[in-house]
Write a structure and sequence with these properties.
Structural class: alpha+beta
Shape: globular
Helix content: 25-40%
Radius of gyration: 27 Å
Strand content: 15-25%
Number of helices: 34
Distance between the termini: 46 Å
Largest sheet: 6 strands, mixed
Amino acid sequence: MTVKLLALSGVALATLVLPASAQTAPKPVPVATLVKQVDIPYSEFRLDNGLRVIVNTDRKAPVVAVSVWYNVGSKFEPKGKTGFAHLFEHLMFNGSENAPGDYFTYTKQIGATDLNGTTYFDRTNYFETVPSSAIERTLFLESDRMGYLLGAITPAVVDEQRGVVQNEKRQGDNQPFGLVDYKQIETLFPATHPYGHSTIGSMADLDSASVEDVKNWFRGHYGPNNAVLVLSGDIDTATAKTLVTKYFGGIPKGPESIVPVVKVPDLPAPKIETIKDRVSNTRIYRMWAVPGLNDPDSVALDVAAGVLGGLSSSRLDNALVRKEKLAVRVSASNDSFAQVGMFSISADVRPGVDAALVAKRLDEIVADLIAKGPTADEVQRVATLNASGRIAGLESVGGFGGKAVALAEGALYSNDPGFYKKQLATLAAETPAQVKAASAKWLTRPVYALTVIPGARDAYVESTPPAKVAAAPAPEVKGTRGALPAVGTISDLVFPKIERARLKNGIELVYAYRNAVPITQAVISFDAGVAADVPGKLGTQQLTLGMMDEGTTTRDSIAIAEAKERLGANISTGSGQDRTTLSLFTPSANLSASLELFSDIVRHPKFDAAEVSRLKAQQVARIASELTSPQGLAQRVLPKLVYGAASPYAKGLGSGDATAVAQLTRDDLIAFQHAWLRPDKAKIFIVSDRPLAEVKATLDQRFGDWVPTGAAGTKDFSAAATPAAPKVLLIDRPDSPQSLIIGAAPTALVGTDELLPLLAANDSLGGDFTARLNMDLREAKHWSYGVSGNFRRAQYQTPYVIGAGVQADKTGDSIKALQGDVKAFLTTNGVTKEEFDSTVSDAIRSLPGNFETSGAVLGAMQQNDLYKRPDDYYASLPQKYRALSVAELDAAARAAIDPAKFIWIVVGDASKVRAQLDTIGLPVEVVSAASGADVR
């Protein structure tokens, strides 16, 4: 359990005397009431071979989450074999003896959603959510890779996934501050400690991995007696027992994974270290090794982290960011693993501020918490937010954080599937004295004090792949288990009924009823978006949105943050190409109080001049950070190239123009608010377990008398699109072990077009894991961790955009490969019948899983409105997909995408990649990373 919220901004104002209306706002329900709503009923049984099976029946949707957790992670790796647990996770997706080929091919056929595999210190897990009528086939597939994998592991497969994993490592290392995790682990833990190396491993150890090594890893750790299988969803225990026994019962036991003996290490003395990275600002860290999640102090340390830097109203945020204005960002987290944890605090120094002063104040604030402990209110606010998040998680049966995850974690780490409940109960009962005692016990031990300052990195340690040895082709493995089980009839999507109403002032309310969890989610969507940002003052919208919860006429920012935390609510802002949103998530028990707070933020922002000045500095710092990030750099230059400088969408330059942002005034923000964030540009979308009449009455109370001020803003798309001519733009980012490639092709499409044939065609080109672009660069060539290509849909322009991170020495060849793949797809090698059948099957069968949660429904409601589609659009998709043809898909793709119009952006080390790019046959323009600040 981790409390980790980033405190980005706030307002330092004196406590205000609130008017009667605010003082009489409904009170939040007690945290104990929320905790009682968190419950996952389950049963369990164990097969004779030791496989532990846990079943949770949830009939809200015709889907079942299948989650297999193996008791093996990187802490089990011996010296010289780092990264093996994670490498093997990748190998598990390359086919088994009775299901050869890519695992995702099979899951796509059945419409699986929320599917992946992950590895960490304590475990390796594999999961997918599937239609309930496909559960038998899914259990066949999972059991086949548990019991029948060895024959499918070949030297070619090992080489392929070794390359993919090494590019995953490069991709993470290539990020700003991307090397900090290595420093943290190697300093807090001795090299011989089970937690003393990163899960991704070293390049050298990955280079040395042999076929026999990985086979021995499988033999030693992947037996059924070393696994937990969780089934959550549309299945009962009796059915589960019959099917699991049928498919897993014949797999023999394997060796038991021997959990290593682990102690929480203690540094002999504080270690103070400074390293350089190509970052925009100095970041200060404080780190300690602490106990794992089964230790009595673990929950108390969670609370300490929340109070210090996790809550929006955290002490570090209030002091360093809001009041003293020494930092632009702070965070604190207690990352709890099965046997140890890592407690971390960080602060991003505000430009121009002495880092030593920030470090001194940070240490003083930590010392004060240790000496005095938190308040009872702080403890309860942490508990309430955590309980609220847990309630939301109950809506998903699988994925990265649903019911199956909670049950599996408890079973594997604590021998108790219901351990999540004990954690919550402990959290709700936590006292300030307990938090004070745990903080004093663990955070007074010698600290690792790391400071990262801007500068050139040390030389990157690259891989040296072993020379390939000619070997006879591996014999083809013939399966022994027969054909795959049949998939039954898939239930059609039952999309919630959409109802409409209008508030007293005419704002349209679009409502859907969902009662799987007692949660309400609402979005006020304004007809604004990136296209509404102010020419010559780019970043106005983002600063305006940032100020919305930084103080109202009746609350300061700390009061707002604390109110949200007491309610277990989240209020956020966002902006797409065409719409600007303010969003609310709240336990429905606190709906009335949350809407009172929400309306105050939406309608009465104060825009205090002093706080505008502080927020401007933070936004300028974010812009500087974007200029050090591969993705940030690419996204700052892409809009003008692909949309044309005259397009309103060309304004989407990250966090804006630093020079313009620095000059913005309070009046600029008020003018933007009055022009765009107004009731006549608003629609309210809401998904709730509360009836429409109740929701409407509460909204009317809070928003029904809202009237606009001044003239409404307008967007002008009359100018013809003038995208850039095809070329390669190389943004020089020295010391990059990987190049980020963006390929963008303008099209004549608009968002309101019926794009279904195009989206179906792109499923084979770039829109899926098994699509050609990814299968070529990742699986066939293993030059990349992942490649995607998608239509970037907006109301008035919809370009096609490819993205890929590739190893630096293959940058030029990767662009050539992408060009070849696209051209072939659009000319001589279009959609195959097999691809077409797989796309249609997946699109139809995945619909129930795609709309399992209220959040997914809420997003679909907004998309339907933006693109002028009927409310039953998603329910009608099966019929639409069945009416498509291969020829229709090919024709749509060839009419929309011109392979000769691609503009290529490369973010990488020019000294390594420029010569490669000169061979592509397009003009090459080289610019510095700093040039990304130029908005001309």
